[in-house]
Amino acid sequence: MSLRWLSLTVIAGALLGCQSVRSPDNVAPEQSISSLTYDELGLIRADSELFEGVVRAQLAGTKKEHPYHLDSLRFDARPYGSDSALPVGSLGFEKSDSSFPSQVRPEVIARLVGNRKLILSALAVQEGGPRHYSPCAGLLVVPVVPLGDSVTSAKKLAELRAGCPKADAYLTVSLPIHGMPEDVRKAAIRIRKPLQLDGEFLTALVDGKYAGPSGSMWDEYAWLFQRDPSTGRLKLATTLLIGIAE
What are the domain boundaries of the chain? Predict the structure, then answer.
């Protein structure tokens, strides 16, 4: 399927995908807008709009429901935290969706990543890749000690957590997916979460890696955004837990 749906949807209501951020004029020649096709510009605009929506919704997070408030928040401007247009360990959502681009040129990714960095800078959010630190055992990992030996248990647990940072929350965001991939729809049915599917939807897959004194964990959520017909803006409709490892 062509990406024309992206262009027609976004081009009338946004500049490079978000109204609050403008792209620099002094971009490298390989990133020049004139070198991009109509469909590629549509993908970039849609990605910027969706990415900004994810960042703003995360910043507004609370402790009551997902997206939760996060300390030491950091976004990777690269889709999936890599230089590729496809994730290395994909669960198949993008590949099963006919509107997802199978080939994205490096210059398109470069422009897209540049826009994401501008969005993060404008919203005063830290940008960067994953941090490498000593092994940090998962949240649910407990040491094997004799039953009732609380002293030994506390000591072993402290050893397991010795490599954990004070706080680290690292998020990556996929390229935009039109509508809801079938695998995401099945996940909603499996967890019995009702969904209102009227109107236009865009989906982002957001991976989170977290570490702190209590251990580390990983999760992946599908974030569904619905376009408000009265304003033309995207609004977070719901999030669906796809996978988790603690």
Answer: 4-245
